[in-house]
Design goal:
single chain
């Protein structure tokens, strides 16, 4: 672990001091309840390696050829072009071409893993290695629930998702733009979203990337929450930097990444690819382009600050050639996911992909099949940071309350599978077989009685009751059960404790920044 991260997390957390002041005098610090959150997954199952060494070497060579012969564009960013020129790249207008090996050599300073600290030290996460951190849906402008249907998202919807994420046992991360609150001006909504993540949950969160100044707001608010020196010495923000595929890095995303890299905060460098539209229709061709784009993004982060934490990202889906709509859960998407995981491991970098992705308009059978295909593939592909793990509908246009709850429940199955097979004396169960013998049953034996509570994972949403009992209860389907669970979780929600003066300072920062600029809705 970089800088002996686990020990560093403990030492650094101990240096955080509760603050007092006017806010504390006005009201007592809120008393929170202890909400159970499972530790991030530590895999005890092998990764699935789809490609052999020869195939991987061909893809790596092709990626280097793309960077040398085709190049990438850095649009409207003269300082970035100057940095590349100084690093040894050839610059022609906005086009950057690199001699083979340049980008990969620059990537060598990126850490293989890092700790993202939460304001509750017990909820900090280790990203990289054999670990898998689960984070919710990101980015949809619409929300859907059973009662309200499909509608534009509001800030109140956003807060509900933050609360549901906090109450969800199997989610270790609060995520970022859980939905896009369209009732708040574009240039100010990031402040309200950050405030929600910092006050309504104590899990790790993501920063804003929609404009470099908003990334800086994220860092400045984090310094209020954690303390300035803690932020400069530790990673407390992860951010999503999408490449404008094919082979284009726009100034907005690059500018946000520059802010985070300078302050030692993490960026996910992630091509956003719809195969057949933004990359070739073939798996190998898409992987070559993905690798080329990731190499450039990670290398550039290291030009800003060597050693700044980054994650090798891959968000790839196929396209329906009849409608032009993206498709999810397809075999080709899984093949790309497996291959990208192998490429990330060969670079010794954390890997981001996967999630509960689907094209369905409703949390129905299509949504379930497509999401399950991606979730299971992501686990076996060695993903370290899974964005969109719950709540995604309609190709990423919709955040769904019911699907959020269903998916978050099913993440427990990933945790259980990733534990592997218990091969100690208890796992072998020879005493149970001797006790029961031929022709009897294991229900009452000592081994079953000692293990029945933890032997099998059990859904907290699905209905296992007999037909008659289910029918007498109104024959609820899974969406109804998920709606009921969401309502119960929101009723039971209690805000985690936060020093009142810190919250006051965050609220004051948000108010000051909002008042400093006129509203903008574009």
């Amino acid at each position: 672990m970089r800088d002996n991260g686990e020990k560093k997390a403990s030492r650094s957390a101990g240096r955080r001091k509760a603050r007092s002041g006017g806010g504390a005098a006005r009201r007592a610090e809120r008393a929170g309840v202890d909400i159970e959150t499972a530790r991030y997954i530590e895999r005890n199952v092998p990764n699935f390696d789809l490609l052999d060494d020869e195939a991987l070497e061909i893809i790596e060579s092709n990626a280097e050829t793309i960077l040398e012969e085709v190049g990438v564009d850095f649009t409207d960013n003269p300082p970035a072009l100057d940095r590349w020129r100084d690093a040894g790249a050839d610059i022609d207008g906005n086009r950057v071409r690199m001699p083979k090996g340049l980008a990969r050599s620059l990537c060598a300073t990126a850490p293989s893993s890092f700790i993202q600290h939460a304001r509750n030290p017990e909820r900090s996460v280790a990203i990289g290695g054999r670990n898998l951190v689960l984070a919710p849906v990101y980015g949809p402008p619409f929300v859907r629930d059973k009662d309200g249907g499909r509608r534009y998202a509001t800030m109140e919807d956003f807060r509900k998702f933050v609360k549901l994420g906090y109450m969800s046992k199997w989610l270790q991360h609060s995520g970022g733009t859980l939905c896009e609150p369209t009732d708040i001006p574009v240039n100010k909504r990031h402040l309200d979203m950050l405030l929600a993540h910092m006050t309504l949950t104590d899990k790790p969160f993501m920063g804003s990337v929609t404009e470099p100044s908003r990334a800086q707001d994220s860092v400045d608010m984090a310094k209020i929450l954690f303390g300035p020196s803690f932020v400069e010495e530790n990673t407390v923000i992860t951010s999503l930097i999408n490449v404008n595929s094919p082979l284009t890095f726009d100034a907005t995303m690059v500018g946000a990444m520059e802010v985070y890299a300078r302050h030692n905060q993490a960026s996910i460098v992630s091509p956003f690819i719809v195969g057949g539209a933004m990359a070739p229709v073939t798996v190998a061709g898409t992987l070559s382009q993905v690798l080329a784009e990731v190499l450039v993004g990670i290398a550039y982060s290291q030009l800003i600050r060597p050693g700044s934490p980054v994650i090798f990202g891959a968000f790839v889906t196929s396209i329906d050639m009849n409608s032009g709509a993206p498709t999810f859960g397809s075999p080709e998407a899984s093949q790309i996911l497996f291959g990208a995981g192998q490429l990330a491991r060969r670079m010794n970098l954390p890997f981001r992909s996967g999630g509960g992705l689907c094209s369905s308009k409703l949390p129905d059978a299509q949504a379930a099949f497509e999401s399950a295909n991606t979730l299971n593939s992501a686990l076996l592909a060695g993903v370290n940071f899974m964005l969109h793990a719950c709540g995604w509908l309609e190709g990423g246009l919709v955040s769904s309350i019911e699907k959020f709850v269903i998916d978050a429940d099913q993440l427990g199955a990933l945790h259980k599978f990733a534990q592997g097979v218990d091969m100690d004396a208890n796992g072998q169960a020879m005493d149970a077989i001797r006790e029961v013998g031929p022709g009897s049953h294991f229900l009452g034996c000592a081994h079953t009685q000692a293990n029945y509570m933890t032997a099998y994972w059990r859904s907290g949403v699905f209905d296992y009751r007999p037909f008659e009992t289910w029918q007498e209860d109104g024959s609820p389907d899974t969406v109804e059960l998920a709606s009921q669970r969401a309502a119960r979780l929101l009723r039971e929600y209690e805000q985690p404790a936060l020093d009142a003066s810190v919250e006051d300072s965050l609220v004051a920062f948000v108010s000051k920044r909002k008042n400093s600029m006129p509203d903008a809705f574009a």
